[in-house]
Amino acid sequence: WWGRGVIQTTGVCNFGKLNYYMGARAAREGRNAAYPEIDFCTNPEKICSGGPPELKWVAGFFYWLNAVQKYEKDGWNYVAKLKAWVDGGMNLADTDFINGASGIVNRGCH
Predict the structure, then answer these.
(1) Are residues 19 and 39 in contact, defined by beta-carbon separation less than 8 angstroms?
(2) Fewer CB within 10 Å: C terminus or N terminus of the chain?
(3) What pLDDT is recorded for position 19?
(4) pTM to 2 decimal places
């Protein structure tokens, strides 16, 4: 389960979610599917090779929307931290938000 796409989609669970909402499983179960011909569980490589060229970005956005934007743990809330960083002038020297978001993407925690 090597990472694929712009945010390096990894793991059975993440590929399964892509398949459930956008891939072959969604189509088999009668839901609208953006990629009904792609089974992300049996062929995750389609994200980067042999699939539609936009798929690496779609998979990255899907992960961002489902894992990063909804993140809230131990008092660290992605949306609240983003708002505070923007309201504070998006100071690049203030790395709390950037490090937190990066940690969520790379380690699953802030």
Answers:
(1) yes
(2) N
(3) 96
(4) 0.77
Instruction: Please check whether residue 7 is in contact with residue 58, taking contact to mean a CB–CB distance below 8 angstroms.
Output: no
What SS3 state is found at 72?
Answer: strand
Segment 4-52, tens digit of pLDDT: 667 777 778 888 999 999 999 999 999 999 999 999 999 998 988 888 9
Tokens encoding 88: 């504070």
Exposure string for 40-73, b = 16+ CB within 10 A, e = fewer = beebbebbbeebeeebbebbbebbbeebbeebee
First to last CA, the chain: 23
Q: Give the rounded distance of the alpha carbon of 48 from its chain centre.
A: 15
Cα separation, 83 vs 87, whole angstroms: 6
